[in-house]
Write a structure and sequence with these properties.
The protein is mostly helical. The relative contact order is 0.08. The protein contains 15 helices and 8 strands. The strands form 3 sheets. Strands 1-2-3 form a 3-stranded antiparallel β-sheet.
Length: about 400
């Protein structure tokens, strides 16, 4: 075995400097590497000094080049890798595997919280209690701090898996293999810091009566099925079982893309009055084929659904606030999830079986999924659903449905 073959591959850090160009002063990243036995010099422009005001900011961008430059070297020194370089390795290799919403969320926590504080620290030297002290000083709700901690842990776990760092200081190291044991890592409470608002049935009923047909249909369907807003707007007409009274929610529309829901095999009941309201809305929308979205937006020629956050904020929330006397705030928000939570409370207050409520909210997947949609909903769940519909459906809707029924029979 030759001496050159045993020679370890050195981590290439390169060099950052300023140079004057026609466009102004720029940051240039320079490095050299051996190619076919000869040392070759390379350089790449990072950006102008207006884009990166400080050397620290330019170095963060240069770290992305360093990461790509060294990613194939198997003998990286664990002592010299900074956490900024580990972040870049995570962004290049792990983040693309996640959903669009997860990528957006993780990048936000990295950019706003993690990278500014830990970029230049040596990844292998970061200690649990130092991270704990830093996390404790962040003045944000416990839920936000928990997400920051989880992203940190994910980055370290990625480093351990790629053998770039030796341990994850965030998670517990106690116990035997396969058993977590006592936690020796960073601790963070998951206590909810907001007030969970629920609405009474008469508030929902009065709101439905005052809303236009589009918003009333969306709110009614959400209030009696407990669909998540992303699932609600992803519904298509083919998901409605007109003869069986079954709704099959299979997808969620998140960050502009459809993704399958984990509870796609758990069907939901639809009482006949709700089906009548859907028929009424189908008569008014220009998108009525089985492959069309129930709430397809004409602004995008039916290719994408309405922007549900804007609809709720501009049209539904003001009506609810006026009727209930409540005011939405950061501490007590009123949104689509309020209707879902209100249904859960209503089912329990009606004395329904907890398992029925759990199945309706689809917090768990049933062990046995029957092939026929008509058999996938239990009699108890159907009974509970019908009772809720009777409580929230306003009288004016009944009159509209009777008028439509009379017209359709002529």
């Amino acid at each position: 075995m030759s001496h050159d073959h045993c020679k370890p591959v050195r981590y290439n850090r390169g060099m950052l400097r300023k140079e004057k160009r026609a466009i102004g002063t720029v940051w240039v990243f320079r490095w050299s590497e051996e190619v076919n036995g000869r040392r070759r010099q390379h350089k790449d422009v990072i950006g102008t000094t207006k884009e990166f005001l400080t050397e620290t900011a330019a170095n963060r961008e240069a770290d992305r080049l360093r990461c790509r430059l060294n990613e194939n070297k198997q003998s990286l020194s664990l002592k010299t890798m900074t956490f900024g370089e580990l972040i870049n390795h995570y962004i290049n290799h792990e983040l693309p595997r996640l959903s669009k919403s997860a990528r957006k969320g993780n990048k936000s926590y990295i950019k706003n919280w993690i990278e500014p504080s830990w970029h230049g620290h040596l990844a292998g030297s970061m200690k649990s209690m130092r991270i704990q002290e830093w996390l404790d000083k962040i003045k944000r709700p416990d839920g936000t701090k928990l997400k920051i901690k989880n992203v940190l842990s994910t980055i370290f776990s990625h480093g351990v898996r790629w053998e770039l760092v030796e341990r994850n200081p965030i998670c517990g190291q106690g116990g035997t293999p396969g058993h977590r044991g006592a936690s020796t890592g960073v601790r963070q409470s998951n206590r909810v810091s907001i007030t969970r608002v629920t609405l009474q049935p008469d508030v929902v009923s009065q709101a439905l009566e005052r809303l236009p047909l589009r918003e009333a249909t969306m709110a009614l369907l959400d209030a009696v099925t407990a669909l998540r807003a992303s699932e609600l707007i992803a519904l298509k007409w083919k998901n409605v079982g007109w003869d069986t009274g079954i709704l099959q929610s299979q997808f969620a529309f998140v960050e502009g893309e459809l993704k399958e829901t984990k509870s796609r095999n758990n069907a939901l009941p639809l009482a006949e009055p709700v089906l009548q309201v859907l028929r009424l809305w189908r008569d008014h929308t220009p998108y009525r084929s089985v492959e069309d979205g129930i709430f397809a937006s004409p602004h995008y020629h039916g290719n994408t659904p309405y922007t549900y956050q804007i609809l709720f904020r501009r049209h539904i929330r003001p009506v609810i606030e006026k009727i209930s006397g409540l005011r939405s705030s950061k501490q007590a928000p009123i949104g689509w999830h309020t209707l879902r939570r209100s249904l859960a409370t209503l089912l329990i207050s009606n004395g329904e079986n907890v398992k029925v409520a759990q199945s309706q909210l689809r917090h768990t997947t049933p062990k046995i999924t029957l092939e026929l949609y008509a058999q996938a909903v239990s009699a108890d769940q159907q009974k509970a659903h019908n009772k809720v519909v009777q409580m929230v459906l306003p009288m004016s809707f009944s009159e509209k449905l009777k008028a439509r029924s009379a017209t359709s029979t002529v």
